[in-house]
Fold this protein.
Amino acid sequence: MSEPSQPSGLKNQAQELLSLRCKRGDRSAWEELVAQWERPLFYYLRRMAASHDEALLVLQDVWLQVFSSLPSLRDPKRLGAWLYTITRRVFIRHIGRLPGERVEQELSSIPEDEPPQGGTREDDSEWVHWGLGKLAAVQREVLVLFFLEDLSLKEIGDLLGIPVGTVKSRLNKARGLLREVLNQGESQ
Amino acid sequence: MNDESVKFGQSLSALQSIDPDKRQGYDDALRGLFQAKLSAWGRLRYLLPSVCGLVMALGMSTLALTEPSSTPLGTRLMLLGIALIGAAWFVICGRILLKGSIDLVADKRRVSSVALVFTALQVVAFSWFAWSDASLLPGLILSVVFVILAGVVFITQEIRSSELRLREQQLRALLGDRV
């Protein structure tokens, strides 16, 4: 998302306005929607998909689904959570099973990069990006949603179809594992 | 979520972007969301109503203008109305054929509007003729029921659209220059 960061209340209102404009059929609003959300949605998909091409193919299907479903979106304030819900649903339909059930060997195309140099690990996006590639899909998914978006634990829970308690424990475990990975990476 | 975490999320997502070599294909696919190219079958689907529309426009307008002077004014107006509908079909479908693609937002809306007006006009025409012939009364009642149902749907949609427009205005006022 390229616009300067805004307080979350203003951001929600801006997103609500954008979705209302899209519902009205405003072409420029649709282009803004794609420009704003393409990057975080692609990042989420690329962390889950087996390849860049697969993520891109799914993203195209996501936009198709968004285009046909957004006019019937009941709560325009929840645009972000709704987009991620659509994205996850399209991805699951594409692979035919839940992300965590996918055989890990299939996801081996996330490149075995060298760890980045410098930075302060958990605060450094390059370190976190590298570390996410070392985690299992289930942990990776919950961390990506946590880091990328202004989603509450309840929204993440609704999106993943799990209780809030499970989200918390999954997130804690994932953060712990990420910390370990980053420690190992720094010592290389 | 504070500013720092928002910026962190933005810098994280910037680390994995779409491959520039694949960008063109992706952009073309997105453009296809708004502009669908017509297949051979699609062209036929718009050619038929375009031709029929032209025939309707020419035929009905000729009838309206050449009917004997004893023809009621209402009948002439009805014929002219149908001629206008035919002309609208011809123009809208002809434009789509010339472009070779359909704008999935604007063109679809135009086609739906003409279809709605055409249906409403048929109902009005049927009602008009049913007044003078008692045997057509059941058809008239059915037409009235249909018009009422269509009116309810239309009003419900308009209320919903008004609510959305009002909310949009409120948000624009709240957000001001930030929009």
The longest strand of chain B covers residues 35-37. Chain B has a mean pLDDT of 80. The longest helix of chain B spans residues 137-175.
